[in-house]
Every structure is written in structure tokens, then in C-alpha cells.
Automatic annotation (TrEMBL):
4-aspartylphosphate: modified positions: D57
Protein name: Response regulator receiver
Keyword terms of this UniProt record: Phosphoprotein
GO biological process: phosphorelay signal transduction system
Stretches assigned to the Response regulatory domain: 4-122
Protein source organism: Alicycliphilus denitrificans (strain DSM 14773 / CIP 107495 / K601)
Domain of life of the source: Bacteria
Keyword Phosphoprotein: yes
């Protein structure tokens, strides 16, 4: 049972590398991408039952990831929102927490932590759904 993940990231190189890494290491299925705040808000809210995890960059080609996060505050409790940013300062982390973000990861040095987060969340989701858990993905 793959973790259905939506990615809001305007840098194509980062986005494609992230999708490849997460699909290979964390049993993630990318269900869509957005490069702007408006695209991210529109898709995530219009397809509320079609995603389990959203990974959001804060600085986008248009708008801000903060707007995407605010638009998804009332998501289902099992849906997770995480931020992946080059600007994961204490102030940014606090603002994200105020918007109900589940985790913040720094692009420069916390990609492994993001992969681990996806593995854990995917395992928890599969267990809650009664699906067999692939423990080999956790080793």
C-alpha cells in the first residue's frame, strides 16, 4: 500500500530527484505535482480523498507554500502535511506549526529524515488499514 503523495515544489530538478528517491526508498506514489500556490491549493482541496501526504516547499514560482498549508488546515487527521525548505529556521518552523504542519525538513541536510518520516507514516497507514506491513522497507 503506497503512500499517495502530492508535491508542491517549483524546482523541477529537486522535484524529480525527490520523487525518484521517495518512490525507491519509501514506497511513495507521487499522485501529482504543483509549481505554484494556486495549483497546490486547488488540487489538494479538490481531491481531498486522493492523497495521504503533501510535501510543500515554502518559496514557489507564484505565491507561497504557507498559503497551501493554510488551505489544508482542515484536512482529515490521517492526512499529513510536511514542509521541505531551504529556509527551515526556528521562526519558519514555528509558523509552520501554527498552520498545523506535521513536520518540517531542511532540503540541505534532512532528506534522510524525510524518507524515514515517509516510511513510518506509510507503515502506520498500512497497519491502520489492515494491510500486511512490509517490514523490509524499514531496515
Amino acid at each position: 500500500m503506497k503512500l499517495r503523495t502530492y508535491i508542491v515544489e517549483d524546482n523541477a530538478t529537486i522535484r524529480e530527484n525527490l520523487i525518484g528517491t521517495l518512490e525507491e526508498l519509501a514506497e511513495v506514489q507521487a499522485v501529482g505535482i504543483a509549481e505554484t500556490e494556486d495549483e497546490g491549493k486547488e488540487w489538494l482541496t479538490a481531491h481531498a480523498s486522493q492523497w495521504d501526504l503533501a510535501i510543500v516547499d515554502l518559496f514557489l514560482r507564484q505565491g507561497s507554500g504557507l498559503g497551501v498549508l493554510a488551505a489544508c488546515r482542515d484536512r482529515a487527521s490521517e492526512q499529513k502535511m510536511v514542509v521541505l525548505s531551504n529556509y527551515a529556521t526556528p521562526d519558519v518552523r514555528m509558523r509552520c506549526a501554527q498552520l498545523g504542519v506535521d513536520a518540517v525538513f531542511d532540503k540541505s541536510n534532512e532528506i534522510d529524515a524525510l524518507v524515514d518520516y515517509c516510511i513510518v507514516h506509510g507503515t502506520q497507514r498500512a497497519a491502520a488499514a489492515g494491510a500486511p506491513v512490509n517490514r523490509s522497507a524499514c531496515s
